[in-house]
Amino acid sequence: MNETNENFLEKLISKFQIVAEFVEGHAWVKGHINDTYIVTCQQGGSPIRYILQRINHDVFHQPAVVMQNVKATTEHLRKKIAEESSVDLTRRTMTLVPTRGGAPYYQDIKGNFWRTYVFIERVESSHVAESPSQAEQVGRAFGLFQKRLSDLPSEKIQETIPQFHNGALRLQALEQAINEDLHGRASKIQDEIDFCRKHKDIVHTFTSAINEGKLPVRITHNDTKIDNVLLDNKSGEVMCIVDLDTVMPGLVHYDFGDMVRTLTSPADEDDRNLEKVTIRMEFFKALSNGYLSEAKSFLNETEKDYLAVSGKVITFQLGIRFLTDHLNGDLYFRAHRDEHNLDRARVQFKLVEKMIENEPAMKSLISSLS
Questions:
Q1: What is the pTM of this model?
Q2: 132-369: which CATH architecture?
Q3: Domain spanning 3-118: which CATH class is it, in words?
Q4: What does the CA dihedral 359, 365, 368, 370 come to, rounded to 10 degrees?
């Protein structure tokens, strides 16, 4: 990073309630959406690191609403965790640093929204679950996350991305992208297009139960991939759940389904070797056991019944989104190589096939744990 950019970061970090001297800052290439920097400051002779982020307002059209949600969520979680134990409190939930005026974000002269968190030290994350016990820990962590937020007044959390999990709209967007074919890519991906059309009914899996009022709306994370769980780098214990931008009202099934997607297959989300894409049932069992150990106390019976099919729903929707973005020129998900979003879509569709194959066994397992 050049000196000008470091000067810019120093000016930005000075807008927040940080009583420390700026030392250095650099970009952190992590995640698909926001611009992230690590800033190191010196306080009392000791270095303290912070996460400084520019919220991508092309994705989140109401950054102020996002930050009000984040503020309400982190404050509620901190209170709940403190009631349970004060040990390592600053590592067990994200700590939002307010601006000098007390706001949860700073808006610069160009209209960009910036926020700062205390950097959580001595943790690591993974792209793929390495053991069933790790899958169980992650499942329990997100079950507990939902449980802790179950008494947060719903009016404090607003929808940040309207229709985020509306599968029918995702299919419409895909068909529009196919018809427009702005980058001449549609003719090369006919197999993927055919797959989406063949399995289009998956997006309506929850429709009847929702209409009958059997699947209640709760406060959920909505991006429960394993990357968003920080583990202690020595003990492997779950320390903190991060990336709270999509916390909003939703179905628990999208949270659980995304864990099935990211925890049960040994393949990376963008793996080019589709032979690696499979469902490890021992991981599914561990995940389900961990999640239900916390969540079954507040879930109703219909919610439990639909857990086994939730993975294919969220995975199919994400595959549609990746494919649509590929057709539209990679506008939403950052592409780090040619056909990156196409590779991501192919992994999701292969995983959907594997989930359908294993659906009877998954239903039986959930039933035995419920």
A1: 0.91
A2: Alpha-Beta Complex (3.90)
A3: alpha beta
A4: -80
